[in-house]
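User: quick one, sequence for these tokens?
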């Protein structure tokens, strides 16, 4: 079986080819999955949110419908999907903004003020890890995220990667950088294949990660609070 080239931009351009703003896909769950973690960090509804690697996720729309209407800014490096999401937003939720931007571009932070209280990443870091120059790109990505966050802001990373593969990247150990975030790790159960493909609610079993314990059929959430 050929493993998809998740780290390549060409893969995502092909994946979104033909997308016309209707069929969408949620990596690691949608609003009902994200909501408990917003509650955990006591996220207020007037929060400014940056969604990185947004793809055609409807998370920003669902958050908007649930009262998060202050400022939602969604970015992705695939121009075609961004254009379609811009059209979709303009028709029903013009407050949600979409732009073609790459979080691993060193110039990213020069275009955005440090005004966001929350950054949501559902699979973007995982994509970067699947590519080339991993340490350099992760370092740039996290530096950009840190710069875009207001004091005491949070970066929420939803990932399939376990802590032994992600924490060293997130806390700077693997990239020889100063720590940018205080990282806490949570675990939740994967949905059934039917729910993953068709959507719908399922019973989340959220737990605090325990080192040395084996977690099967689980996703991980890295709650990263800005330092400094």
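Assistant:
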């Amino acid at each position: 079986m050929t493993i998809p080239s998740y780290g390549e931009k060409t893969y995502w351009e092909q994946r979104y080819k033909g997308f016309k703003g209707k069929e969408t896909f949620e990596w690691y769950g949608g609003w009902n999955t994200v909501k408990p973690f917003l509650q955990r960090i006591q996220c207020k509804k007037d929060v400014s949110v940056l969604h990185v690697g947004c793809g055609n996720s409807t998370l920003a729309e669902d958050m908007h419908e649930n009262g998060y209407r202050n400022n939602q800014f969604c970015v992705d490096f695939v121009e075609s999907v961004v254009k379609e999401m811009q059209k979709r937003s303009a028709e029903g939720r013009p407050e949600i903004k979409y732009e073609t931007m790459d979080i691993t571009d060193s110039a990213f932070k020069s275009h955005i003020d440090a005004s966001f209280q929350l950054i949501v990443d559902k699979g973007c870091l995982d994509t970067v890890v699947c590519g080339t120059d991993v340490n350099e790109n992760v370092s740039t990505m996290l530096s950009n995220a840190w710069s875009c966050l207001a004091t005491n802001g949070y970066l929420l990373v939803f990932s399939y990667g376990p802590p032994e593969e992600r924490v060293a990247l997130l806390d700077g150990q693997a990239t020889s950088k100063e720590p940018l975030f205080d990282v806490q790790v949570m675990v939740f159960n994967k949905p059934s294949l039917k729910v993953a493909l068709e959507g719908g609610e399922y019973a989340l079993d959220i737990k605090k990660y325990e080192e040395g314990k084996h977690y099967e059929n689980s996703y991980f959430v890295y709650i990263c609070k800005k330092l400094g």
